Input
Amino acid sequence: MTSSRVRAFLGKGGVQVVLAVLALVWLTPVAGLLIASLRSSDANAQSGWWTALLRPGGLGLQNYSRLLTDSGITGAFWNTVLISVPATIGVVVLGSLAGYAFAWLDFPGRDAIFLVIVALLVVPVQIGLLPVAKLFGALGLFGTLPGVVLFHIAYGLPFAVFLLRNYFADIPREMLEAARMDGCGEWRIYRQLVLPVGRPAIASLAIFEFLWVWNDMLVAMIFANSDSQPLTVALQSQMRQFGSNIDVLAPGAFLSMLLPLAVFFAFQRHFLAGVMAGSVK
Output
């Protein structure tokens, strides 16, 4: 009886109703953030953002215009781009190379090394903060953009290698053997065969890594200084200095959401294919 009721519920559009409710719950704070970013600081201090739905005439773009002329915020935005893009590219390139090597190349200790990489997935990032900080201090990388990028690459590689190795291992062996019989070397097979076939998994990895690095605050607060701090740290410092500085925090937080959303929607088709890869044989 229970299973029949569940099937009847799902058949009557119950899934759509649940998804619509979840979407509404998720979008409510986003809508509130957008409306708050369009209101003045006095209006936000006097009433909640939902009151603007009844009187939308008080909304404007003044907060955004002031924000975009703030050199500290704009500099932090470009720092975020300069951290996220190289870190994502580095993880994707190194992870795909290592994933192909662990999947199809025979070398001594391959399985043992791969197990060590998989074990690194459970190591919390907090454990490496102090020793890496000492290492970066000795190398002169502490407080610089390259130091933050290298840290993200190092801690993003275990997941990248694990994901891409498992995906590349599902490529039919006959395809690789046929390419080798045609005279292709390993580098050419990687570029012209493995990368195109693994595009869904690579796109999924790129989206995950970009979002992780873009929204990171812990690593940036430790390894970046005032000249290299990303947008998350800049917004946090605004909150610490000025308390309820909503006219800066709201538009800054909303702008920080736009680029990750654009990246996700740009690679959405590949992302869904990568997530569903392997679910159906």
